[in-house]
Amino acid sequence: MSMTVRRLSRAATAGLVAAAALTAAAHSAEAADTLGSAAAGQGRYFGTAVAANHLGEADYAATLDREFSSVTPENEMKWDATEPSRGGFTFTSADRIVDHAQSQGMDVRGHTLVWHSQLPSWVGQLGASDLRTAMNDHIKGLMGHYKGEIHSWDVVNEAFQDGGSGARRSSPFQDKLGDGFIEEAFRTARAADPAAKLCYNDYNTDGVNAKSNAVYNMVKDFKSRGVPIDCVGFQSHFNSNSPVPSDYRQNLQRFADLGVDVQITELDIEGSGSAQAADYTEVVEACLAVDRCTGMTVWGVTDKYSWRSGGTPLLFDGNYDEKPAYDAVLSALGGSGDPGDPDGPGDPGDGTATCTATYTRTADWNSGYNGQVTITAGSEPISSWTATVTLPAQQSVSALWNGTPSLNGNVMTVRPSWNGTLAAGASTGFGFTVAKNGSDAAPTVGTCTAS
Ligand code: G2I
């Protein structure tokens, strides 16, 4: 009973907030975009993980409320938090997040129903038949409490092993119930809340590899047998050991082609400055390039509360200031920044447009070689760039592509052809073929200038 009352009052509140937001938007056509509004313009949500115990911090709540359109409780919906003893459900912290989100008109992602980690010890002590019942009861209890209030649930999280085997990870569920536990969890989940999208979620599945192949085969099998699955979550925790894979978009697309939505569920990228911004741009562009990529969630609001302490992997620094990565994401989403913010995107001509140019030899043969210059925008979007390439005296250029060259002796000044406009941190490049004429020396690339 009390659940129904809660739900009705939540729906009513959300409706009022949405109406207020529309009015505000109508009156402030010149206001800066936010991550949420820019993503909405692309038909996507832009979310963040949230911890209930930070909601009382004014800057945290203000940043959350301003920027994001979806929230995922970072820990509060996990099994240890919601059913610490068998049948003893507690939703206090999770309710706090859901109530907060709804009061701001944000959607909620549910994370997570069945996972080997953050599992109370009583679960691991059950025999197979009891465990099966407990798993289904947990799904019904948790999903039932939030029925109709969660846009997507991570039904099963991280059930596959890392490494090349593509095997299932050992867990009480896998070890006692066998491979069928995943399918059973999805069937139970569908019945518990038919309105929620049901996702399988994992990490190190972001590119094409043995682990993602195993998940892919499972999803394909589920779709062919009518097991209810709607989406696959790609956690996307990146750093220098685990960079954004070059086949990220292709991997998202192949899952989408199976007939499921894909979502970027726990995005964070260690690093800083323009390199981090460029990586974020790549991720956002990959999602936008895949029709069924319905939204992105970063794994936290601010660097200071990230689980990767020290890795500064998020979009806001510890003072809640927007990082270059923020500008890059906003810009990649097609949003424009605050005209009063000198470091925001959409401020061309503010004198801070920068770029870098790096050279690599991409092909080599006896009499010639191909060179490639990569142009990367700094922390501001740019609308044009200029790079110079000085060739060793004997050499001459016989072809150039993706740029407009003008030659002065052996100095070649290259400007964009079609590729002048770059988001903050984004890259393009031009290539050229050189006749060596007896000299194998490398050309020198001068400073890149941008406007
Ligand atoms: O590990 C990163 C993520 C990988 N994918 C699944 C996610 O659920 C997972 O999130 C992290 C949270 O960000 C951390 O906050 O999951 C961790 C646990 O596996 C969370 O850390 C735990 C700490 O280990 C506990 O000591 C702490 O009590 O957070 C708990 C609540 O603050």
From TrEMBL:
Residues 333-352 are annotated as: Disordered. SUPFAM superfamilies: (Trans)glycosidases (SSF51445), Carbohydrate-binding domain (SSF49384). Residues 348-451 form the CBM2 domain. Belongs to the glycosyl hydrolase 10 (cellulase F) family. This is Beta-xylanase. It catalyses: Endohydrolysis of (1->4)-beta-D-xylosidic linkages in xylans. The keyword NAD does not apply. Residues 1-31 form the signal peptide. It comes from Streptomyces coelicoflavus. The active site is at residue 266.
